[in-house]
Amino acid sequence: MIPASFMILDSLPLTPNGKIDRKALPAPDNNTRSESALPRDTVELQLVSLWETVLNVPSVGIHDDFFSLGGHSLLAVKLMNHIREQFTARLPISALFQHTTVASLAELLRQEGTRRFTDLAPIHSKGTTNPVYCLPGIFGSVMYLYPLATSLGAQQRFYALQTPGLDGSATLDTIDELACHHLKLMQQQQASGPYQLVGHSSGGRVAFDMAWQLEQQGETVYLLAIMDAHAPGFRSFNSSELECLVAYVQMYEQIMGNSLNLSSETIKTLPDIETAYAAVAHTFLQHKLLFDPKAAVDELKAMVNVVRITGQALADHPMPGKLRCPIHLFRASEQSADDEMNDTREAWGWAQYTHAAVTEHWVPGNHLSMMFNSHVKTLAEKLSRYLSDKPV
User: Fold this and answer.
1) Pairing of strands 132-135, 158-161
2) Which CB contacts under 8 angstroms, 24+ apart, belong to 261-267?
3) Could you say which of 323, 368, 384, 389 has the lowest number of CB atoms within 10 Å?
4) Would you place residue 14 in the very low, low, confident or very high pLDDT band (cuts 50, 70, 90)?
5) For the packed helices 241-256 and 273-286, what is the interaxial angle rounded to 10 degrees?
């Protein structure tokens, strides 16, 4: 039998008879880290300090999992921004899905510059079931998809496909290019079908295009799930840089659950776009959403550019044709007045784009909150009914 922990004492408490007084022995400190969990070099030491700060926990071991300690998408953004500032390393946020411990992330930082990252983020890669490939909405980041992945269970393999360009690299200007890019990454991971595609918001449109291309290749699409997205023809997209910046601020407020104290009206009344970027960057720095004052505006511009380019690509993209596979449309129960009053098309217009059926499912929450908190558990439970449990 191996003891669960060890304690070193200066002396053992004894009874009047000179025997060890077991009742007087101190209780083991379960929070004490074993030697193997302590930082082994300055890289791990710095990372442990960052994790303790971001997660607000008193003690972190180098093998502790970031998400098991309470990490979530917003804290992941903060952590990676800290790392970028402290290590001057340009790691993508999605790298945290692959390297969830201090030890693993430290090894990655030591190798930084020798490894090339892809836009395929393996959130759960060790399960046994047919993988799910999930596409984010117009903001492009996959971090907010983590609650859905975990709610589907540890056995469900789950990969997220991030939109290129968030780190300032080249963007893809058309939906065809974006779908081809994601298909290449997906088929490197899974050479043949059946495939399971999930897309939230505008990611649903990209997932549709991927499904079309797969069917043209003779592949089988087992599942196409579209999360709270209209088919084309409902509303036009305002691709102005200012509107995209405002939308980005609103998105972060919804994720945080509170106001950043920078209203849309305030942003829109600023004299020019550069002043607007500076104001938003200042606010994000105050709320620890960005950390490097010198790079904050450029980072914002890269993220807003992804919104603008993707939105315009969707507006310009004709639907390629009808699918053979059915479509599952998951709709948020808290719809805006525009959604309820203006889009009266059957299944939000998706029925005309498949030879099979469109099945609608209602999920509590609004367009974004359906992906979080208790709402995402309902979403995952409903989605899991239609996922294949067969390994590939």
Assistant:
1) parallel
2) 267/242
3) 389
4) low
5) 10
In degrees rounded to 5, what are phi and psi of residue 99?
-135, 80
Task: Choose among 297, 314, 264: nearest CA to 138.
Answer: 314
Q: Is the pLDDT of residue 1 over 60?
A: no
Distance between CA atoms of residues 92 and 167, nearest Å: 7
Residue 321: closest CA among 361, 349, 354 = 354
Query: Tokens representing 305?
Result: 């550019």
Q: What is the pLDDT of residue 187?
A: 96
The whole-model pTM stands at 0.79
Residue 308 in contact with residue 101, Cβ under 8 Å? Answer: no
Assigned token pair, 384: 């899991």
Contacts (Cβ under 8 Å, ≥6 apart) of 187:
none
Strand order in 132-135's β-sheet? 120-124, 158-161, 132-135, 195-200, 221-227, 327-332, 358-363
Residue pair 267/261 in contact by the 8 Å Cβ criterion:
no
11-15, 148-152, 172-176: least confident range: 11-15
Q: Which residue has the tokens 């193997």?
A: 36
